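Predict structure. Chain length: 99.
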Amino acid sequence: MRKTYFITFRNFFHKPFFNRLTKPRPFRAYSFVPFSPLAMLDPTILTIGGIVLGIAIIERILERWGVIDLVDQFAKVMRFILPVTFYSALIYFFATFIF
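Prediction complete.
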């Protein structure tokens, strides 16, 4: 059952009426952000990982076929791309899911 209160404009404008009605309730607030491994299932992370994994598989297939010159070119490119990709994905992961 609700009670209806009638207040004057002056009381409404200066709000002493609301101070009497609302009493702050003390409560404890805890802040905890759990880390979930399922957060790595982000489409961006999966796409980057799939591209890197695909290049590694192509490199192994070319090595089996005996195309060593092309494999060396892939190895030179991957020597640069893998660390850059790893650290970029790590920064993206922490910037997106932690903050």
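Summary: The mean pLDDT is 78.
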